[in-house]
Description:
Layout: E1 8-13, E2 15-16, H1 18-35, E3 40-45, H2 57-66, E4 70-72, H3 83-86, E5 108-113, E6 116-124, H4 135-148, E7 153-159, H5 163-177, E8 185-191, E9 201-203, E10 206-209, E11 214-217, H6 226-235, E12 248-258, E13 263-274, H7 279-282
Parallel strand pairs: 1-3, 2-11, 3-4, 6-7, 7-8, 8-10
Antiparallel strand pairs: 1-12, 5-6, 9-10, 11-12, 12-13
Amino acid sequence: MSGNTDKIKIYFFGDITGxxxxxxxxxxxxxLKKTNDAPFFVIANIENASHGFGLTKKNYEDLASxxxxxxxxxxxxxxxxxxxxxxxxxxxxxxxxxxxxxTKGAGCRIFEVNGQKLAVIxxxxxxxxxxxxxxxxxxxxxxxxxxxxxxxxIIIDFHAEATAEKICFAKYLASVFNSEDKALIKAFFGxxxxxxxxxxxxxxxxxxxxxxxxxxxEDSVIGMDFETSMxxxxxxxxxxxxxxxxxxxxxxGVEVLIDRTSATHIKRINFIVDNSKDExxxxxxKDVGTL
Length: 291
């Protein structure tokens, strides 16, 4: 982070899925470092980063060294067994806060960004999801605690299936904690479906999108190989999902600008890139579907 402005630019990347998703995001961050002269903070959902399921320690360390400041996750964060060995020491990794008390890891992390306290909360939805504690009271209590600690900005990754649940939860939290002249919750990003929605907006000073999408192989079924996905879906028989393999990847996410009062800007990130090319060749403002 650098600069003396109170504004902070936030880049949030939807579910990084497999090696090609990791490569695409790492290359894009390298590009951002070259082209941004203002402070920025990078958050990425990484619950599918290691071959589509979970996050190995090796991949965690590699992504952390690339410039991702905070990692959010979801129900798949436990899929790689070594997560239990390092999650307690991973100070920039957030697991869903509404797991039962005593679960390893933290559901919220506080960072100092450009001289300001910024907190990131991760929570799981309950509609069409595995059984989990209700996020409503848990998240509300956490926000109250953060406010008492002098946190100025709260960012939420709500990992949920149902669009209605995401919209309702976001509106509720903004109505409780944001006023017309001061927003505590600066951004609320939905994740999990891997399909980017086109409803980005600023609501009561809070940047919002129902789903940020995913980062992974473009010619896939939400990151997975088409053939194995088709067999499983068309026959209802067990079939092991395999990650799709191609250097053509998509990058989904959002760019948000906040200040001490509210979010002032939100823009979707939606690129299709060729990972075999140098990052300086591919990250230009172009239509999806072109290379």
